Every structure is written in C-alpha cells, then in structure tokens.
Amino acid sequence: MIKAYSKFLDKLETVEKLFLAVTVAIMIIVMVYQVVLRYCFSSANSWSEELARYLFIYDVMIAAAIATRKNSHLQVDFLINLFQPQIKCMFTIGATIVGIVFLGFLFTYSLTLCQTAASNISAGLKISMSIPYACMPLGAVLMILTSMEVILKNVSQIRELGTEEVGG
Q1: What angle do CA 12, 15, 18 make, to 5 degrees?
Q2: What pTM was estimated for this model as a whole?
C-alpha cells in the first residue's frame, strides 16, 4: 500500500516540479520585463508585479509540500538526534500529526477566505482574489498528502526496527 501511495506522490511531485519550473521562468521573464520597462522607458504597469507575487506565493506553497515529503523543512533536530531510531520515528509521527491538524485548520479557514474574497478583484490583473488565495487550500492539501506518506514510512520503519530487535 505504501509503495502505491508513494508512486502516486512521485507522479504528483513530477507535476509539481514542472509547475515550479514553468512559474519560476515566467516570474523571471515578467520581472525582467518590469525592470526594463521601468528603468529604460520610465513606464510601469501593475499587472507584472502582481503576477510575479502571486506566482511566488503558489511556488512557496507547492515547494513546501515537496519539502515536507523530503523531510527537508526547517527543524531543530539536535535533541531528537540524541534518541534511538524508534523514538525519533515516534517524534516525527507526533510532529507530523500536529502539522496535519494545523493544515486541516489552514485548509478550512482558507476555503472560507477564498469564498469571501471571490467578489474582490485585484488591481493589476483584474482577476478574482480567490485565485491568489486558492494557493493556501491547495498547498494545505498537498502537504497533508505528503505528511501522510511521512507517517506511513515512519510507522513502517518502527515495525522494521522492532522486527530486527526481536530477530537479533
């Protein structure tokens, strides 16, 4: 079951990385365009700044899901590294469950925010503000999905360590 779920997340991560590559390229192009327009032609537009900002926010939320899966997010693990592998796994599971609870709240409240902001229009792009705000529920769902894999892998690792102790 874990292998099938991990394969699904592998494919999802490929899509996420492709999205990140495309949006970062678009951000760079739009920002260079804005700088050239502003400093060479003494002209500016607001849509380019907004587009770069919204793409950056989406990129952060999607990259956070990838970081969660790879366990490469910011953490203080000095104390945890002093413990045995089974206890490390238990701490990781506990912290991940706390994170999932937080992400559940984030998802719920960000959906409400998206619904509330649907009638507001952005100044530069003239789009509904629910589109930029949609990065929060999207990011929360992606991080919950990857957090579930972290829990499953740590439970599996605890079982393997328990089997080694009994057999060894």
Answers
A1: 150
A2: 0.88
